[in-house]
Amino acid sequence: EMMRQAIFMAQSGGGERGTHGPYPRPICGAVLVAKDGRILGKGRSNYAGHAVEFAYKEAGIQATPLREWCVAWPSDSKFRKDISESTLYVTLEPTAE
After folding, report:
1. How far is the C-alpha of 76 from the C-alpha of 58, rounded, in Å?
2. Cα–Cα dist 97/29, whole Å
3. Whole-Å CA distances, 59 to 14, 76, 79, 95
């Protein structure tokens, strides 16, 4: 079910690259899900950023995509636990950009 939502996010693209155009890179979808099944964040890639980046931002996570992700953990202990036990569903692995 959650992977279907990530696929839907990717397919709902349109805009500057259309729904099927892979150039310059494919449109990806991402859904960040807590252990109890709550969706913490969703994202779709575009020219401004990657799907994972947008899903983290919607979830309220400050993350910087460097060679490895640099994450500023929130002060709320329940939210930190939710994040640490969450699963990230992504329709395509990130590019080497």
Report:
1. 16
2. 17
3. 23, 13, 10, 22
Is the previous residue joined to 24 through a cis bond, with omega within 30 degrees of 0?
A: yes
CA–CA separation, 41 vs 33, rounded Å?
7
pLDDT digits (tens, 9 = 90+) for 50-71: 888 899 899 988 776 665 666 6
What lies within 8 Å, CB to CB, of 34 at 6+ separation is: 40, 82, 85, 86
Residue 79 tokens read as: 């939210």
Beta carbons within 8 Å of 61's beta carbon, 6+ residues apart: 41, 71, 72, 74, 83
The closest of 66, 62, 59 to 94, measured between CA atoms, is 66
Helix H or strand E encompassing 89:
strand 87-90
pTM of the full predicted structure?
Answer: 0.75
